[in-house]
Amino acid sequence: MKFKEHTLEELEAKRSRISSRFALVGLDGFVDRIVTPVASRSGPGDDFMPISTITEFARRIDEAAGKSTNIELYPREDRLGGNGPIMANALVTAGMKTRYIGALGSPEVLPVFQEFARKTEAVSLCDPGATNALEFTDGKIMLNNTAVLEHITYEKIVATIGEGKFFDLFSRLDLIAMVNWTMIPAMTDILGSFLDKVLPNLPSRDQRVFFFDLADPAKRSDSDIKSALLTIKRFQSHGKTILGLNLKEAQTVGRILGIGESDTNAEGLKRLATRIRQELALGVVAVHPRECAVCATREDAWHVPGPYTETPLTTTGAGDHFNAGFVLGQSLNMTPLASLALGVASSGYMVRRGRGPSLNDLDAFLRNWPA
């Protein structure tokens, strides 16, 4: 696996640059309750057999059609959630100075977010959403309550922070990551306001990187998704623009752009990422299924295997940790191959340990790559 040695060399050479990088992440926020669906119970507490797979869970639901059923959701823990807070927390853990704007509680930040808010000098716009995260061996199902996120608008951001302070913050950023487009109804309008009202009034910045993550847009219409993609495309005029997609999202975007079906092996995924990047004229498109990751730039397309495990401690937030690792590499001017390796290592570490890695953790994980 030559990509490991390549990544370790780059990380050693460029890790000192992280202290000079400044990121802004937004705009969601959720309180995540991690739960396990119960198949059969033998006693109190965790004395039960879980429903292990989504297929088994779906069968239980299907069998209830025309009747009814009761499925217990056993609570494991409540924790900070949302694509934005998880990604921002991962960047902070890796050592990047990061500010956060999003839904963390109103009028006061909720206890689950308070340490995170302190570390990121966070600005809270409204109460967070709520999620029941059902974790299975073959994936997860996120049951969300998102009504409060309707309060997140450009006008709310400016009114809360102050226009002058917001423009000043934006002018100093090296990385702007706007994630969870699907759950924030006004996100396309917010991005349009950044393009029309903020960026034209700022001085140019050589190293500015924009990152976007749609976050499972299945519930949104094709026309809404296409409008968002065309808005994201416009950011390329202001800096390197990266679109991050999991496999399902990439297939959806490919269909909407008229690209058609692609194989899900390494070569097929590289072709899909390349075609999406070309259609949208973006700087980078990254696609990260569970078993590997690929990305495409103007120059070429790259692939790295993932340190997949069949027995993860947790899977909620794995994609957000991939995103954090990948954009960390890109912000440090690392090569696409090394950036992918940081992404899968960050995700791989998190699902095994239940927390995000520091740079030293990433270094050790790469050196001791799981078999």
Please give a handful of descriptors for the protein shown.
371 residues; alpha/beta; UDP-N-acetylmuramoyl-L-alanine:D-glutamate ligase; nine-stranded mixed β-sheet; 22% strand
Describe what is shown at a glance.
The protein is 40% helix and 22% strand.
Can you put this structure into words, describing what you see?
With 371 residues, this protein is α/β, with parallel strands linked by helices. 40% of the residues lie in helices and 22% in strands. The protein has 13 helices and 14 strands. The chain has helices spanning 2-14, 54-63, 83-94, 114-120, 154-161, 163-171, 187-198, 222-234, 247-256, 266-280, 318-331, 336-353, 359-367, and strands at 22-26, 30-41, 48-50, 73-81, 97-102, 123-124, 129-136, 139-145, 175-179, 209-213, 240-245, 284-287, 292-296, 301-305. The strands form 2 sheets. The protein has a 9-stranded mixed beta sheet with strand order 6-5-1-9-10-11-12-13-14, sandwiched between helices. β2 (30-41) and β3 (48-50) form a beta hairpin. The longest helix is centred in the last third of the chain and has 18 residues, at 336-353. The radius of gyration is 20 Å and the shape is globular.
